[in-house]
Design brief:
Helix 2 runs parallel beside helix 4. The longest helix is centred in the last third of the chain and has 36 residues. 42% of the residues are buried. The protein has one domain: Ribosomal Protein S5, domain 2 (2-Layer Sandwich). The protein is an alpha+beta fold and 253 residues long. The mean pLDDT is 94. It binds cytidine-5'-diphosphate.
Length: 253
Amino acid sequence: MGGGSTDIKLIDEKGIRLDGRRVDQLRPIKIEAGVLKNADGSAYVEWGKNKVLAAVYGPREAHPRHIQDPTRAVVDVIYNMCSFSVEERVRPGPGRRSVEISKVIADAFRNVIFTEQFPRAKIDVYIEILQANAGTRCAGVVAASVALADAGVPMMDLVPACAAGKANNQLILDLGKEEDNVGQADLPTAIVPKTGEIVLLQMDGHLTQDEFDRALQMSMNACMQIYELQKDALRRRYATSANDAPDTEEVRQ
Ligand code: CDP
């Protein structure tokens, strides 16, 4: 957030934003499941100019043993921004921001994965931001939940995520980089569609109670659109695997 500057014009008189979107319009999103051979599950997401890869390992026995929980699986998330993902090179290694993002995403998934089915196990989720242009934590959640499903990890539901916010005194969906830099508020949200539960909610900037309610509704509606894209990616993945399998005639020969 740029401290609420309203001087820079991000939305024109017709309600069109710098990148040509309407205030309630998402950037284009593409999701592909099962992109990495050596991970148990994986997914790749392009969301506007964001490019995000997620890989899942596990559930597998947790090591060292002292980290094991006898009642449930431990879920670990590592969100990493590649040095080349932004204009000003990011210092490699976990900084304050990536530690925070990893934690809030892990908390979100601990609410969704049936961890009690895997005592003493560990599930590792790696989120690699290859290219960043605002909204990477949401893109990371979207990619990670498809990767978890691709790994066959039992969960309540997929977890779509999206941000809404405010710029030039108007509520907008899915903030782009300029909007994030100089806008007035940013509200990343992740939900469990099946229950309507919110599993991630953060806020940067300022909103009135009424604006907050409307922004939350906007991001939750967008989450339902993204949920369809996540399911579609898994369907395509399943269809490809079925086509790749040798048919019974071939096996018999
Ligand atoms: O990416 P997200 O919106 O979830 O998190 P943020 O902390 O609000 O960052 C917004 C954007 O700032 C990122 O998506 C990057 O494009 C950019 N950024 C950057 O250029 N350099 C960093 N070290 C961190 C973020």
